[in-house]
Specification:
Layout (H helix, E strand, L loop, with lengths): L3 E5 L4 H10 L5 E5 L17 E4 L7 H9 L4 E4 L9 H4 L4 E3 L6 H16 L2 H9 L17 E5 L3 H12 L3 E5 L14 H7 L2 E4 L13 H6 L4 E5 L8 H9 L3 E6 L21 H8 L3 E3 L8 H20 L6 E2 L19
Parallel strand pairs: 1-2, 1-3, 3-4, 4-5, 6-7, 6-8, 8-9, 9-10, 10-11
Antiparallel strand pairs: 5-12
Helix pairs in contact: 1-11, 4-6
Bound molecules: nicotinamide-adenine-dinucleotide (NAD).
Nicotinamide-adenine-dinucleotide binds next to α4 and α6.
Length: 346
Amino acid sequence: MGKIRIAFFDAKDYDRNSFVKASEDGEFEITYFETRLTERTTRLAEGYDAVCVFVNDDINRQVIDALVVMGVRLVALRCAGYNNVDVEYAYQKIHIVRVPAYSPYAVAEHAMALLLTSIRRIHKAYIRTKDFNFSLNGLTGFDLHGKTVGVVGTGKIGRIFIDICRGFGMHVIAYDKFPAEGSGIEYVSIDELWQRSDIISFHCPLTDENYHMVDANTIAKMKKGVVLINTSRGALIDSEALVEGIKMRKVGAACLDVYEEESNVFFHDYSNHIVDDDTLARLISMPNVIVTSHQAFLTEEALTNIADTTLQNVVDFFSQEYCKNEVCYKCPEVDTCKQQHNTKCF
Ligand code: NAD
């Protein structure tokens, strides 16, 4: 086979830098498109072997059908989560590969950075001292030492976040659909986690089952003043219920690296525009809410790993019978997924 042709969607400068460096050996012909992959932009993939996409590209049924008609054989996600791909519909039509881990440290450390910024009011202090305002009024925080943190999802990122929290002398409890036996983690039911936690951090994938797991009902079960940290996926939290929870003084602070409607705004500069999303605007206006725009992954180490693994996935797919980072909707069922038996998913 000649050069593998890749249509690269939602390309940012930092993506291009890391992928240009990782593809220097010339095995690939990569075209970088700034636009996201949607029904309207799919035709840009005409003549390519693979598309490379990120968290807010929408790989729905129409996009999958169009890619298949054009002869595109592979969707290479340059991220871990694949909730933006209709994997069930893609089965037996187009293959999906992803980067299961690139730097779990990047995300876990960002979660702690958000927490510390929020509870020690660093975001406020930074702006004040820039304006030579050295007053301390309104900047009172609280110690993390001795507080109970509830971690939802104890995979790669969740466990690193747990280690960081333990370093601060916090008491850690956790909920996971598949608890890790012998891990020394204190697992509790999700209701107990809501009730006992001073701080709750989300590190599980978004699935149909946990969509809006934080809503008005669950917020009612939480401690008054609870701090919520979401570096996972926005739709784990019902944003309007969060706004209400903050207005009622039930939720003490929210640290959000993800937002359920983020695909319309995140990664773009709207500083000269009126943002149409009233819920996001309300959240950003609140002094106890910090929003970063899906930035948790963004470290040098993570970008290098993402580029290296994505391109290796593409090479493996086109040159071998098996690609260890392929995903299909059957993968969780060990007995039915062929990929578990060292072959492609279909
Ligand atoms: P992982 O697969 O290693 O761990 C996920 C954990 O969640 C597993 O232990 C799994 O058993 C658990 N889980 C699955 N369904 C659950 C449910 N319904 N309730 C509770 N727990 C459940 O994944 P990871 O690498 O630790 O990543 C976690 C999430 O972080 C990803 O799914 C992704 O959404 C998010 N992420 C965000 C960024 C960012 O830049 N903000 C970057 C990478 C990953």
